[in-house]
Amino acid sequence: MVGAENVLVDDAERLARATGLSYLDLLRRRSPSADFPVPDAVVLPADPEEVQAVLDVCVRLDVGVVPFGGGTSVVGGVAALRGEKASVIALDLVRLDALVSVDAESRIAVLQAGVRGPEAERLLGEHGLTLGHVPQSFERATIGGFAATRSAGQASSGYGRFEDMVTGVRLATPRGAWKLGVAPASAAGPDLRQLAIGSEGTLGVITEVALRVRPVPPVRRYEGYALPGWAAGAEAVRDLAQHHALADVTRLSDGDETEVSLALNAGLKTAVLRRYLAARGVRRPCFLIVGWEGTAHDVALRRRETTRRLKASGAVRVGKALGESWRHGRFAGPRQRDALLDRGVCVETLETATYWSNVDELRDDVRAALTASLGRAIVMCHISHAYETGASLYFTVLTARDEADPVGQWQRAKAAACEAITGLGTISHHHAVGVDHAPYLSAEIGALGVEVLRAAKSAVDPTGILNPGKLI
């Protein structure tokens, strides 16, 4: 169906698509004795029609199919599980790399699923347009992956989450092609686009996504503020959200994350900055990064309201250097993690979201659960995305690796954190469900909700070949 050169069976190619990029995935890749599932082959279709043809063959032969984009899942979303199937392939969409069309009048662009974040911006930039979707996985993740996991970019307060950008989606399913989205809004029953988005490859293979795009912003301004403690910082962000004064990027670090930032940021004159903040009553600072993108007039107008409210909240302006330092280093986390792994550190992240009335309790409970499980550890937290009704909390954990049982060490800690989250917040704000969060999904959507998802899967994938073991 795709040509012999696009069916890969050697060990290196299969191993390269066997896992995502979680801490446990990286541990397994580093261990010569690790035992984890590997696809039996990697298949690289060239277009949506070939994707459909491959699925047709896999249905006939009862072969499991794991859709593979950038491979950046940190929840087991691309693990080569085969479930009850005798064999499984990784369906790598890297060759679906085209900008299909641009409707400049409607500001809609159609991109194939395999286009990576930087390439999407380059292709759209040739038309003076941008998607504005920049998660930390931006350098590797793909358009199809963004859609399949309901991704949230760092500038989502301005551009929206990825599902807010999707105007249409095309999927290949075991039952045939499926296209959704014909108008900017519709009352023609439940919005099935939202069922396809976030389905994590279990209801179909996303091949094309129609997206709302915007003109490339001529001005980008990022700067930093310091607030006197977490409570004051969270209250300031809530005030911005509920008065519609959020910057496009609004990111609040707690005290521990701020201290690590100060220790690592050679560009800041730390001693001078501490004296400057202390003189203004901020001795235990929490850094706030804010950034605006748009025309000069638009940025100036929105910045004026944001900074006015921040000043009233007791924020102290640190300046553009802090904001620009964050902007230029925001993709460095994965590379720093590799360096820490080399030095025997267990380093991982997890995230959730809740309503404002639960933010402090949720943060405290997750921190306590992680500390109780791991013992001596650094547990950092930041508000990564803010809404009128609540916020996302993103945790970064560092502790000495238990060399005797490194996998069990993190599995126990993650389970403790998930138990702390359950009932207070969502099990995932933007990392998705995959394998890791599947045990907690029923508590969030109810047993009936799980049955609804199973019914949808049965309708489009009656023999269960799509991404076995994920989501449901």
UniProtKB/TrEMBL annotation:
<dbReference type="InterPro" id="IPR016169">
    <property type="entry name" value="FAD-bd_PCMH_sub2"/>
</dbReference>
<dbReference type="InterPro" id="IPR036318">
    <property type="entry name" value="FAD-bd_PCMH-like_sf"/>
</dbReference>
<dbReference type="InterPro" id="IPR016164">
    <property type="entry name" value="FAD-linked_Oxase-like_C"/>
</dbReference>
<keyword id="KW-0274">FAD</keyword>
<feature type="site" description="Important for enzyme activity">
    <location>
        <position position="251"/>
    </location>
</feature>
<comment type="similarity">
    <text>Belongs to the FAD-binding oxidoreductase/transferase type 4 family.</text>
</comment>
<protein>
    <submittedName>
        <fullName>FAD-binding oxidoreductase</fullName>
    </submittedName>
</protein>
<feature type="domain" description="FAD-binding PCMH-type">
    <location>
        <begin position="35"/>
        <end position="216"/>
    </location>
</feature>
<feature type="active site" description="Proton donor/acceptor">
    <location>
        <position position="394"/>
    </location>
</feature>
<feature type="binding site">
    <location>
        <begin position="200"/>
        <end position="206"/>
    </location>
    <ligand>
        <name>FAD</name>
    </ligand>
</feature>
<dbReference type="InterPro" id="IPR016166">
    <property type="entry name" value="FAD-bd_PCMH"/>
</dbReference>
<feature type="binding site">
    <location>
        <position position="337"/>
    </location>
    <ligand>
        <name>substrate</name>
    </ligand>
</feature>
<dbReference type="Pfam" id="PF02913">
    <property type="entry name" value="FAD-oxidase_C"/>
</dbReference>
<keyword id="KW-0285">Flavoprotein</keyword>
<dbReference type="Pfam" id="PF01565">
    <property type="entry name" value="FAD_binding_4"/>
</dbReference>
<dbReference type="GO" id="GO:0008610">
    <property type="term" value="P:lipid biosynthetic process"/>
</dbReference>
<dbReference type="GO" id="GO:0071949">
    <property type="term" value="F:FAD binding"/>
</dbReference>
<dbReference type="GO" id="GO:0008609">
    <property type="term" value="F:alkylglycerone-phosphate synthase activity"/>
</dbReference>
<dbReference type="InterPro" id="IPR016171">
    <property type="entry name" value="Vanillyl_alc_oxidase_C-sub2"/>
</dbReference>
<dbReference type="InterPro" id="IPR025650">
    <property type="entry name" value="Alkyl-DHAP_Synthase"/>
</dbReference>
<dbReference type="InterPro" id="IPR004113">
    <property type="entry name" value="FAD-bd_oxidored_4_C"/>
</dbReference>
<feature type="binding site">
    <location>
        <begin position="67"/>
        <end position="73"/>
    </location>
    <ligand>
        <name>FAD</name>
    </ligand>
</feature>
<dbReference type="InterPro" id="IPR006094">
    <property type="entry name" value="Oxid_FAD_bind_N"/>
</dbReference>
